[in-house]
Amino acid sequence: MERLGTGIGWRPEIADAVERMPGIDWVEAVAENVCPGHLPDSLRRLRERGVTVVPHGVSLGLGGADRPDAGRLTALAERVQALGSPLVTEHIAFVRAGGSLTASPHLEAGHLLPVPRTRDALDVLCENVRIAQDSLPVPLAVENIAALICWPGEEMTEGQFLYDLADRTGVRLLIDVANLHTNHVNRGEDPAKALAELPLEAIAYVHVAGGFARDGVWHDSHAHPVPRPVLDILTDLASRVSPPGVLLERDENFPGPAELEGELTSIRRALEAGAVERVKAEFRSTLGWATRRAQAGPAERAAGDVLGGRPETERHARTPVRAATDRQDEPRAVLMEGTGRPDEVRGVGGEVFGAVPQGDETGAAEATRGAFGLPHQAGDDGARQRLGLAQAALLSALVAGTPVPEGFDRVRVGVQARALAAKRADVVAKVAPELPVILGDEYRTAFLGYAQAQPMTAGYRRDALTFAEHLLSAGRPGDAQARRELRAWWLERSGPKPRSRRPAHRLARATRRVLSRR
User: Fold this and answer.
1) Do 75 and 205 have their domain in common?
2) Residues 76, 133 contacting (CB under 8 angstroms)
3) What are the beta bridge partners of residue 176?
4) pLDDT, tens digit, for every residue of 7-44?
5) How far apart are CA 8 and CA 77, in angstroms?
6) Of the residues 269, 288, 307, the one at which a domain ends
7) Contact 98, 395 (CB under 8 A)
8) Rounded to whole angstroms, how far apart are CA atoms 6 and 20?
9) Based on the structure, what is the number of domains in the chain?
10) By C-alpha distance, which of 361, 356, 330, 329 is closest to 342?
11) Residue 142: which domain range?
């Protein structure tokens, strides 16, 4: 794997600062925000200087029930080629649900949502990753995500899920240590245990970011300084393996260059502390091996029976949790940690199917019951439909106000629903900056009220138009001049082609009119 070094997420708001920042070996750009035919001048200059640029996708939805969209894969491949990137990254998440697979309305989350750590979800994810790998011109790495909510009855830990994914597909891993911290706070998951279970040799690079606590949960905001617990997890990771690259993410509330450089310095120090611990551990391991070998008899040394040979310092020991069979087309029980035998198999509904004795056809049949309590059907389409129904039910509860599916924490689902609506309002304000100008202080309240009744179905630009239609049909806003401006804005963008090519001038005029009314 190519050594990337220390990097920072490239964003237009900090482009100039990133160009001048010392010690930046590479940058990562959100793939969907890059136009292959019109690269930002800043990215072009960085590339000319030899700085690696990695596109980071957010919209494939590899963890969703549907197969990856061919058009999205083609667009991602075009960005890889335009940037001359050595790899491309995406997320282990679902971002949409519903549609023909489930005969239900198509819904967009506008956010990365966690997949259940079940056999069904893993089977679907593995096929989706293989489809993506076949369509992309460079290696793919996928990122673990932060989660506010837990799926009921999960069958694997995060480390086991990622290990099996990498083992079955050969995909690289992008490990976000901030997301491990988020899942520690929100889901009670031990970051050290997750790191111990990961296939460290599959790591492509590492993300580091900040967040904040609210409503009793940790929000992975990418808009706050990196906290000490996240740096401690980075040190733990670096004590186990030397990551090929580490990158600081910041998406909102951008501080000055000095503060960003200070965070990068803290990241480097955390890596150095981990490297020191790694060297110490390697020395102790080598010394212990040498001592035991010296104490062994000649026959043992000749046979190579002492520790199975010299220790491999870059190799980690996988937690002993494996499938009962390596064949993907056969039923699999789970070997529980430390037992070496099949034990309980739980569905997402929480039901226990019990151990599967050899030769017990009844037990084996029960073990093949799929996730979500539905019978396990042969073939991938059965897994896709079960996963699709479960994801559609959850997403509908989050964005359309339908009942929360059984087994989920209703309070946490409510927190996630509010977070999704708030992010949706923020992104629409960026996509259509005229709307907050025209509506003024009324914008956010009006949008959140609209979002409660109108799920997003076709992306943020369409969402902005639908929001304007919603207000106009209700005779809003109350100010007549603002209503005329909103109607003109909507007509211009909903027609077959724009009436003007000077949006910046229109925005400036609208801003002056709004300020003159205050």
Assistant:
1) yes
2) no
3) 207
4) 999 999 999 999 999 999 999 999 999 998 899 999 99
5) 22
6) 288
7) yes
8) 15
9) 2
10) 356
11) 5-288
CA proximity to 455, closest of 421, 486, 432: 421
For the purposes of burial, counting CB atoms within 10 Å of the CB of 391, is it exposed (0-12), middle (13-18) or buried (19 or more)?
buried
Pairing of strands 217-219, 212-214: antiparallel
Give yes or no: residues 418 and 282 share one domain.
no
Give CA–CA dist 55/344, Å, rounded: 41
Entry field: residues in the chain: 518
- CA–CA dist 293, 59 (Å, integer): 54
User: Are both 284 and 430 inside the same structural domain?
Assistant: no
- Tens of pLDDT, residue by residue over 375-401, are 434 446 889 999 999 999 999 999 999
384 and 97 Cβ atoms separated by less than 8 Å:
no
In a domain, 405, yes or no: no
If DSSP codes are grouped into helix, strand and coil, which group holds residue 80?
helix
Question: How far is the CA of 82 from the CAs of 27, 39, 209, in angstroms?
Answer: 15, 8, 27
Q: Which of 271, 288, 305 marks a domain boundary?
A: 288
Q: Is residue 302 part of a domain?
A: no
Residue among 393, 391, 398, 390 at smallest CA distance from 414: 398
Return the CATH number at 208. 3.20.20.150
